[in-house]
Design brief:
By secondary structure, this protein is of the alpha/beta class. It has 2 domains: 229 residues, P-loop containing nucleotide triphosphate hydrolases (Rossmann fold), CATH 3.40.50; 59 residues, Histone, subunit A, CATH 1.10.20. Helix content is 51%, strand content 9%. The protein contains 13 helices and 6 strands. The chain has a 6-stranded parallel β-sheet, with helices on both faces. Strand 2, helix 2 and strand 3 form a beta-alpha-beta unit.
Length: 302
């Protein structure tokens, strides 16, 4: 009799524009299983162009989960994602012993594969308070709060990642103790097999793909998509590459050419961070696949 340990979660992660979605659709269609998106922006509705969400054809070919399921003003976290995915998986295992998780949001992937520390729920009033501090005082004001609340975490956090800094401040306030004291750092024992892969492309090739994708997004109507989101521009869902540059263009602070070039540059910077994340020592290392035969190589690993 089969057990949960016979089930396999195939995690296709890696740098943006590396070809994750195409590989996931190909593998999932051949295995007859579903795809779980691990993209912290594709989860929101109304952002298909700027988030490079699966196309209507890809969505029709394989059933996807966590794509376009939330309004842009909804609060969502890696902790909620972990809980939602772990609740979903048993129903997927009942249909097929494989499931594919695809995305490059590092905290989402780690939350499911390695587990996440139990952290307090953030009251709406706390989120609103920290959001006001950020809006009125900028990043420096939130960093100053974190210095008072948790100097140990401030010493290690990427200060440019204001979303992560803000979240740490929220947790400190909600828990009444430093965020660094709540993190255990233990890898969860999952009752299923995990196979984690990424597509290995030369950096020059990856950057060229990023540049071409950005041009394609603009051609597909990213400006119109951003204009439709102007009433929500302060929401966290839109505090990301693509929309920030488009808002700057709409505001008249950049030309379209400047916004497009800045978007490509910032996307390349983000891709470098993803590659650094892939290369870090971990209990479950990522297997790098040759793009020429990625699907066949992955299927041979199962």
């Amino acid at each position: 009799m089969a057990s949960e340990r016979d089930n396999t979660l195939i995690v296709i992660t890696g740098a943006t524009a590396s070809g994750k979605t195409s590989l996931a659709v190909e593998v999932a269609s051949r295995l007859g299983c579903d795809i779980i998106s691990a993209d912290s922006r594709q989860i929101y509705r109304g952002l298909p162009i700027g988030t490079a969400a699966p196309t209507p054809e890809e969505l029709a070919r394989v059933r996807h989960h966590f794509v376009g399921m939330l309004p842009v003003d909804a609060y969502y976290s890696a902790s909620q994602y972990e809980q939602d995915v772990m609740r979903l998986l048993p129903s997927l295992w009942a249909q097929c012993r494989y499931a594919v998780m695809c995305g490059g949001s590092m905290m989402y992937v780690d939350a499911v594969t390695d587990g996440i520390d139990e952290l307090p729920s953030i009251p709406a009033s706390t989120r609103e308070h920290v959001a006001c501090v950020l809006r009125d005082g900028g990043a420096e004001a939130v960093l100053a709060m974190l210095e008072l609340l948790d100097p140990a975490y401030l010493a290690e956090v990427d200060r440019a990642n204001i979303k992560r800094v803000t979240h740490a401040v929220e947790i400190c306030l909600a828990a009444g103790k430093p965020y660094s004291e709540l993190r255990k750092g233990r890898v969860a024992d999952r009752p299923f097999r995990i196979v984690k892969v990424a597509i290995d492309r030369p950096r020059a090739e990856l950057f060229d793909r990023i540049n071409r994708r950005v041009d394609m997004m603009v051609a597909q109507g990213l400006e119109a998509e951003a204009r439709a989101m102007l009433p929500y521009r302060d929401m966290n869902a839109l505090n990301t590459v693509g929309y920030k540059e488009m808002f700057a263009y709409i505001d008249g602070r950049m030309t379209l050419a400047e916004a497009t070039a800045r978007m490509a540059k910032n996307t390349r910077v983000y891709a470098k961070k993803q590659l650094t994340w892939l290369a870090r020592p971990t209990v479950r290392p990522t297997v790098m696949l040759n793009p020429a035969d990625a699907a066949e190589s992955l299927l041979e690993m199962l």
